[in-house]
C-alpha cells in the first residue's frame, strides 16, 4: 500500500490539477509496490498511467478538451444528433468473434498515442454488416461508452433529400466535425449512399455523394471513429470495402445467446420455472432487438397484472407472438 506521504501528495496534486505531478507520484507508487513484491499491482498502476498519458496527449493534439459541444449548431445541427452513451461491452450479448474484434478496436483506441509514436494508427473506420436488430447500432453506442466519447448519428435522410445537389458540401461539414470533435460518428443504413455505382435505379446525385464520401474517408486522419452500418452489404459498391480498416459481420443469435439475452433482460422478474435453454430454441430466428422487445412485453404484462414474476409461459407467449409478426413484416417490405 502507498505511504501516507504519497497519498497526501496525490491528493494535493489532484486538487491543484497538476497532472504531471499526479502522474509522477503515481509512478513512484508503482515502483514502491514493485519493490514490495506486488508485481501485478505495479503493472496495473503503470497501465493506468500509460492510458492517462495517452488521453492527455490526445487532448493536447486536438488543442482542447475532447468533450464536444452538447448541441451541434448551424447547418450541422440538421445533419447530426448527439448522445452520450454509457453502454459497456460486458453487457452486450454477441458472438465471441465479434466481441474479440471490438475489444481489439477499443484497446487500439485507448493506446492510440503509443501506436502513433511508432508511425501506426488504430482502427478507426469500421463497416458493420448483418440483419436488422443484431447489434450494429448498439456497437456504436458501446464503443462510445467504453471510450468516453459522444455518439453522433448522421441523418442520411436529411443529407440526401433536403440538400439534393449540395450534398458534398454537407458531407464536408460532417467530416470537419469528425476532425475537430473526437467522437463516434455513425452512418446507419449506409447502403443509402454507398450502393453500387452503375445500378439501373441509381440517381446521379447518389453517385456524387458516394464519390465525395470515399474521398473524405480516404483522407480522414482524425482521432474519431467512423462507423458505417448496413443491413444490405450486397448492395454496397466494391470500392467501399477497402476504405474501411475493419469489416465486422453480425448474425442472428444462437439459442445460447438468445437465452443469455433473455436472462439478462428479465433476471429481476424471472420466476423459478424458467427454462432458458428451451426458450432459446423457441426464439430461433429472432434478432436481439426482437428478443428484447418480447422480454419487455412479458414484463409489462406481469406488472399490469399485479404479478411479481415472469413465467416460462409468459416469455414463450411473447416470443411466439414476435415470431408470428415476421411474415407480416416481410410482406410489407
Explain how this protein is built.
With 333 residues, this protein is α/β, with parallel strands linked by helices. It folds into three domains: 4-62, no CATH class; 76-249, P-loop containing nucleotide triphosphate hydrolases (Rossmann fold, 3-Layer(aba) Sandwich), CATH 3.40.50; 255-332, Orthogonal Bundle (Helicase, Ruva Protein, domain 3). It is built from 16 helices and six strands. The protein has helices spanning 4-15, 19-35, 39-62, 76-79, 96-110, 112-117, 136-147, 156-162, 167-180, 191-194, 204-218, 238-241, 255-266, 276-282, 288-304, 312-332; strands at 80-83, 125-129, 151-154, 184-187, 225-230, 246-249. The chain has a six-stranded mixed β-sheet. Helix 9 packs parallel to helix 11 (204-218). 31% of the residues are buried.
List the helices and strands and how they pair.
Elements: H1 4-15, H2 19-35, H3 39-62, H4 76-79, E1 80-83, H5 96-110, H6 112-117, E2 125-129, H7 136-147, E3 151-154, H8 156-162, H9 167-180, E4 184-187, H10 191-194, H11 204-218, E5 225-230, H12 238-241, E6 246-249, H13 255-266, H14 276-282, H15 288-304, H16 312-332
Parallel strand pairs: 2-5, 2-6, 3-4, 4-5
Antiparallel strand pairs: 1-3
